[in-house]
Amino acid sequence: MVWNFSPDLSNADSTSSDNKKDNSKPIGKPMSAKMDKTITPFQIVQSNDDKTKGMPATGHAVSQILSPLKDKNVDSVQHLKRNHNLIIPELSDNFIVLDFTYDLPLSTYLSQVLNIDAKTPNHFNFNRLLIDQDQEGHVILYAISKDRHQVVKMKTSVKGKDVNQSLKNLSSEMQKYTEIITNKDTIDKATHIFAPDKPKDLKCYRMVFNTINVEKMNSVLFNDSTIVRSSQSGLTTYNNNTGVANYNDKSEKYHYRNLSEDEKSSTNMEETIGGTFEFINGHGGFLDEDYRLFSTDNMSGELTYQRFLNGYPTFNTQKLNEIQVTWGDKGVFDYKRSLLRTDVILNSGDKKSLQSAESVRSALANNNSIDFERVSNIAVGYNMDDRPKNDDIEVQRNSEFTPQWYVEYDGKWYAFKDGGLE
């Protein structure tokens, strides 16, 4: 049951894009995704004295908030470090929070999303951006590190009144949010965990899928004709001199590995994020659907792009809602995805209200099997309950999408159920 393959890499370096098959076709519309819609926060929060409100970061909301920040100047940069919990004394009582689910290089976000040229600390990563104003009415940005011990303060040329207008345009869509403290690093107003107070009337959906042709996927990734090496029990292996791919027609999951790339993947996120985005976008891999960067693994170099629905992240135990990609020295090293794409989205007509964020917090804090200090996010998401197609019935594969509480615990996301984590 062991299969060995030794590729002939003698001509691998000479293979160019000119030698690719003329009939190589993208799996979706190329270059349809935008960087500021894919490298984006998952929620927008306004903290105003003791009043906190927010909303999921829909494409419309992100455009509103980021529009005044784009193409502007950064006049000064200051890097602050704290050994204990982060306190920003000059932070006002009214500021905006952009929360991300992943570590992101500040230089990448400024240059590729906001089109701002600024000299920032080398390899500084953040997952929360605060938008504040000074007494002169200029916008101050605070990029906060994931461990909540470092912050980069940037004074910009952006006018506060423009940000105020953008926030006013979104005010009617915002709902009450609550602030949660889980450990000593989240006790300041700049570092609280924010979650919707009492999520109500969230719509449920059903999606019907069709399947991307595996040959089309092969034509995107292989430079020349492929050989089918084996096919049994629904698993087919394809390869040529520079790559090997496996496809499972039951799960409809595809896994490609580039043999011409080094075994060691790149962990330089400044290169990896831009490279993987351009690679997937170049062959229409986002399928005109709302895929967003959701996690970055700084050890393995793997990035996960995850499907969103109405601004909320979706979760699936079989990872049918994810695109996982690892960058090598000059190109993609490893690429895993489902070949399902949305055919029809149906509003089921059902609406669901969730228990309050406070009850979730209380249940987690009182659960003896959970170390509450390791909770770093509490958020609403959609559970993708997959319904595989039955070969005996002429029914397309489909899924139910139901809203549910999710908790980031020790760096991983879990569904909250019955006072614990699934």
From TrEMBL:
A Pfam family: YycH
Domain of life: Bacteria
Residue ranges constituting the Regulatory protein YycH domain according to the UniProt record: 1-419
InterPro entries membership: YycH, YycH/YycI_2
Segments for region (Disordered): 1-33
Protein name listed in UniProt: Two-component signal transduction system YycFG, regulatory protein YycH
Organism of derivation: Staphylococcus pasteuri
